[in-house]
Amino acid sequence: MKVITCEIAWHNKEPVYSLDFQHGTDGKINRLASAGVDTAVRIWKVEKGPDGKAIVEFLSNLVRHTKAVNVVRFSPSGEILASGGDDAVILLWKLNDSKESEPLAFQDEDEAQLNKENWIVVKTLRGHLEDVYDICWTSDGNYMASASVDNTAIMWDVNKGQKVSILNEHKSYVQGITWDPLGQYIATLSCDRVLRVYNSQTKRVAFNVTKMPSGAGVEGEARSYRMFHDDSMKSFFRRLSFTPDGSLLLTPAGCVESGENVTNTTYVFSRNNLKRPMGHLPCPGKATLAVRCCPVYFELRRALNKDEISQKSAPALFKLPYRLVFAVASEDSVLFYDTQQSFPFGYVSNIHYHTLSDISWSSDGAFLAISSTDGYCSFVTFEKDELGIPLKEKPQISVRTSSATEKKVKKSQSHKVISPGSRLTEGTPPSRTTDPSTPTLQTRTPTAASKELPSTPVGIKNVPTSSSDERKTSQPASQRTKVNQPRRITLSTLQAWSKTPRRINLIPVKTDTPTLTYTDAVLIPPSSEQEHEGPLPSDDSLQNPPASKRPRTEEMSLSTSPEDQMSCNSTK
């Protein structure tokens, strides 16, 4: 496990908001797309050098957006690249084998000559009224969904280039969206502090998740707390994700308040119960903002000796016939988890001066790319089998899609046709039926409160809503005078954490370092109370949209070419 921060002016030293590795190319080339404030989308080639560190090569500069680009996402097949930005437009790019470049009206002639690949816009999707913050694809690549500052999410038919439905139940910016790999659900996360799960077939809200019961209050009154941060978060993104098999939903930007203590966390939902999280993964630092899963399935990790078998460890949150690995990015660090243990096995911090913005895994799991608003990107590289032994064959998952014949039958049998704009009446979520394609997920329900696992907090205080109109503005280099801190990569054993400022530190069985305190994942027992579905109270002040955006700098100067700016160094 090695980390390198490439000294490349990725987007002319302007903030980098998103990046994404291309999958579906059979590992022939690791293409990476990046996007930022300079309005451009850039394609890079990432390879592993002799020392095991990442080597980056510029491939192409994609210029068509007129404002900052907030998100880039490749389709599952890798053929199409979707980009969305502050111009409220989503562009679909495709590699052009005919060597015909984009018209010079969109990019400088000198820059066009540097391109080693030619990407062209094949479709332009217009429907949002404000900035596009996040994009996700279906597993077959025929549909996609987008989240926007206009408080809506839109489902798109990619082949037709048309809107399928507009999801407008959120009361504030929609900062994250993900599509269930099995095709049944779409989940959105907003700074109105609500997680909404939609049924992709009916386009209606299936679950609203916003509050968690915290025990009996005064005179037996039930108390609850808000599960997600408000708009005072420094990050502009809440990139949630389903696991590749669709069995789990992982949501960042979570918070748990106990008295005066606030714990940042990432919630874990089981597919079998998306009303209430089955547990949460506390983060020892700042708020979490993105979760991305490694696309590789690994064999279960086995105990090496009898001592390890008898060693007391935290209980697993879930039981699967394979291991899944995922990374959680907070504002200043990245934590690595797997589905076989309830606390991180790796921790990376002090690699960037400003807030992180996005993370992405390569198709073979050898790289994790990290972008930051300080204008730079880092790479965490893994040796072969370092994360585990990959399965020889990926598990088969059943994707739920309606064929054309089924759609015609349903339409003929129903006198009431649901239009794309139809909405669920607040407070009347449809009943769920068990989908035979739903994978079986066995959860471990605690029978007694463990001393090592804190129970659900009782004393709860809501975080006050900030009225700040903080916007995405690039900070000059003169303000980046933060004292250099040592890069820290921690490989955690089953025993403890360490904050020793060494590059790679294998932790002993016992440690007396009290600086970094980490709490194991907390199991949340099932509740017999009525789940929090339906609308929120209309008089809730926390539901008011935050202040409008300040204008951003739209004209970016390209002082140097990407190839002239390229050199990779590593801080040891």
Features:
572 residues; six-stranded mixed β-sheet; mainly beta; Methylamine Dehydrogenase, Chain H; five-stranded antiparallel β-sheet
* Shape assignment: globular
CATH architecture call: 7 Propeller
User: What count of helical segments does DSSP give?
Assistant: 3
CATH fold-level label: Methylamine Dehydrogenase, Chain H
Terminus-to-terminus distance: 13 Å
Strand count, sense and barrel status of the largest sheet are: 6 strands, mixed
What number is the mean pLDDT?
76
The percent range for helix content is under 10%
Rg (CA only): 23 Å
How many strand units?
36
Q: Which structural class best describes the helix and strand composition?
A: mainly beta
CATH class: Mainly Beta
Strand content: 35-45%
Largest sheet, spatial ordering of strands: 24-26-27-28-33-34
Blueprint of the fold:
Blueprint: E1 2-6, E2 16-21, E3 31-36, E4 40-48, E5 54-63, E6 69-74, E7 80-85, E8 89-95, H1 109-114, E9 119-126, E10 132-137, E11 143-148, E12 153-157, E13 162-167, E14 174-179, E15 185-190, E16 195-199, E17 204-209, E18 211-216, E19 222-226, E20 241-242, E21 248-258, E22 261-270, E23 279-283, E24 288-293, H2 306-310, E25 318-319, E26 325-330, E27 333-338, E28 346-349, E29 356-361, E30 367-372, E31 377-381, H3 404-413, E32 442-443, E33 488-491, E34 504-506, E35 522-523, E36 568-569
Parallel strand pairs: 33-34
Antiparallel strand pairs: 1-31, 1-36, 2-3, 3-4, 4-5, 6-7, 7-8, 8-9, 10-11, 11-12, 12-13, 14-15, 15-16, 16-17, 18-19, 20-21, 21-22, 22-23, 23-35, 24-26, 25-32, 26-27, 27-28, 28-33, 29-30, 30-31
